[in-house]
TrEMBL record:
Classification via SUPFAM superfamilies: alpha/beta-Hydrolases (SSF53474)
Name of the protein: AB hydrolase-1 domain-containing protein
Species the sequence originates in: Paracoccus fistulariae
Residues annotated as domain AB hydrolase-1: 38-152
InterPro entries: AB_hydrolase_1, AB_hydrolase_fold
Domain of life: Bacteria
Coiled-coil stretches: none
């Protein structure tokens, strides 16, 4: 059955968030009724707010009354104006997301504020969550470290490693040192993980390790037959259950 829903970004507002490091485009949508809070939704490597798996997360938040703020972070090949994808690093991705969080806090200082992230967006929000103590943290297909992603690529074969070395050499170099395990252990807010059971980039055991490292883990769900970017009705149901479990 075809899902005829309109992508959330088509009814969203696009602004430039003024941050300490410059202006970062953000896509913002509010629910039709009362606002429960504001969530910062962080895409992954070569991600964008309009991608189907990010749309899936945004729609569930909107249905539950949350305002969604999704930045177009630097160095994504899916965002031609964001700068060279070859210059992406874990550190820069996390820092840029943090700068948008600071902007969100200035815009809606009295809101409950949550964090959500996909892939290395999940890595980024772990670091932010340890520092900022949000209302809750949702991670979709999250790697706990760069080595999780590098090991998965090595298991795929030399071409998979060569691809990332060619496309994002700085990111590839940082894979061996990027680590969010300590940060996850300092996230006291309710945390949930949703992942594809057949994810080749963040294998199920590694998504479980991310969840197990959290002191306040509330929900872990894996979707059979889904890979790194889960979508579809079953995914929406699981995301909604994750938010319910966290009181979001």
């Amino acid at each position: 059955m075809t899902d005829a829903r309109e992508n959330w970004t088509r009814r969203a507002e696009r602004l430039l968030a003024k941050t300490a490091a410059g202006r970062i485009p953000v896509v913002i949508a509010a629910p039709s009724g009362a606002v429960s809070g504001t969530v910062l939704l962080v895409h992954g490597r070569n991600g964008a707010p309009a991608q189907p798996h990010i749309d899936e997360i945004a729609q569930v938040y909107l249905e539950r009354g949350w305002r969604v703020v999704a930045p177009e972070l630097p160095n994504s090949s899916a965002l031609p104006e964001s700068g060279p994808a070859s210059e992406l690093t874990f550190t820069r991705h996390t820092a840029a997301a943090g700068q948008v969080w600071d902007w969100v806090a200035q815009q809606w200082p009295d809101d409950r504020r949550g964090l959500a992230g996909h892939s290395i967006g999940g890595y980024a929000v772990a670091h932010l969550g340890a520092r900022l103590q949000p209302d809750h943290l949702l991670a979709v297909s999250p790697p706990m470290s760069g080595m999780v992603l590098l090991s998965a690529r090595r298991a795929m074969g030399p071409n998979a490693v060569a691809e990332v070395e060619r496309e994002a050499p700085l990111y590839r170099a940082e894979m061996e040192s990027a680590d969010a395990s300590g940060a996850i252990g300092r996230v006291t807010a309710p945390l949930a993980v949703v992942t594809g059971a057949d994810d080749g980039l963040v294998p199920l055991k590694d998504a479980r390790a991310y969840f197990a490292a959290a002191p306040n883990g509330r929900f872990f769900g894996s979707l059979p037959g889904q890979h790194h970017c889960p979508v579809g009705p079953a995914c929406r149901t699981m995301l909604a259950a994750a938010l319910e479990a966290m009181g979001a």
